[in-house]
Amino acid sequence: MASPAPKIVLDGVTKSFGPISVLDGVNLSIDPGESLAIIGQSGSGKSVTLKCILGLIQPDAGSIRVDGEEIIGQRGKELERLRAKFGMLFQGSALFDSLPIWRNVTFALTQGHHRDAARMRMIAEENLERVGLDAKILDLRPSELSGGMQKRVALARAIAPRPEIIFFDEPTTGLDPIRADVINDLIVSLVEDLGVTALTITHDMASARKIAHRVAMLYQGKIIWRGPRDRLYDSGNPYVDQFVQGRADGPIS
Ligand SMILES: Nc1ncnc2c1ncn2[C@@H]1O[C@H](COP(=O)(O)OP(=O)(O)OP(=O)(O)O)[C@@H](O)[C@H]1O
Predict the structure, then answer these.
(1) What is this structure's pTM?
(2) Which of 11, 41, 130, 175 has CB atoms 3.0–4.6 Å from 63's, for a disulfide?
């Protein structure tokens, strides 16, 4: 059987800031319904890659296609239409503390306008339930919740518009290992249940191994290794080995 057309394809993506080359020909392909994690050192360009896909940074060269449509160079309504396929879980959760939880969860649906409160509360309740949170928190403010609960609310917000693709930016940062694992489990079940395509950037190897079908490592502006998650600790690549084992000595200085 022919494999499905990829959902996202990066082809020869380059980006420099002044004299500093950050991305130096990134090639990557993600299938529909696949969960892929990009790992790499701090400053290796994971966030820049994500911002290029989101259309927030214009690469210098290369191509980024989503469902076969080029993102690079798109503006205005066209970019908005493509971006409507994306959901995003931000690193710091990025909830609005001036708004109650239910308005946070439905923010992308209302674009911040006050409309159809009863229906929005129902949608918020249903999405909170999917991430294991009770309707009792609907009227609380984000600051009244623990970091782990805030992350779940942020997850509920990311899935509420039922995006086709979700980006997870360091989803476990700032959580203790047990709460991090709860978030990993939730991401796995959401990706499965909703059939979304997921791209995660992380330094958390336990998280990458749990939530991704495949892992890709970014080093010196290129994807130097990609493989199934169960090969992460058995990649045969000295750069990947050093990184996943967190060793100071090795080819990465
Ligand atoms: N807007 C910008 N202007 C100038 N330099 C930038 C800009 N954005 C990113 N950089 C540089 O690009 C490099 C890669 O940054 P990036 O944030 O993508 O790394 P990262 O792999 O996501 O790191 P971390 O894991 O620490 O978040 C860094 O050297 C950073 O300083």
Answers:
(1) 0.92
(2) 11
Question: Is 221's C-beta closer than 6 angstroms to any atom of ligand 1?
Answer: no
For 15, other C-beta atoms within 10 Å of its C-beta total: 22
Ligand 1 center–CA 182 separation, angstroms: 28
Residue with the smallest CA separation from ligand 1 atom 26 is 42
d(CA 149, CA 179): 9
- Topology of 8-245 in CATH? Rossmann fold (3.40.50)
Atom of ligand 1 nearest to the CA of 218: 21
Mean pLDDT by 10 residues, the chain (253 residues): 85 96 97 95 94 93 96 90 90 87 90 79 94 92 92 92 93 87 90 93 92 96 95 92 89 86
- Cα(80)–Cα(21) distance, integer angstroms: 28
Best mutation site among 17, 24, 41, 205 for ligand 1 pocket (most ligand atoms within 8 Å of CB): 17
Q: Where are the domains of the chain?
A: 8-245
Signed CA dihedral, 74, 77, 79, 85: sign only? negative
Tens-place pLDDT, residues 210-240: 999 999 999 999 999 999 999 999 999 999 9
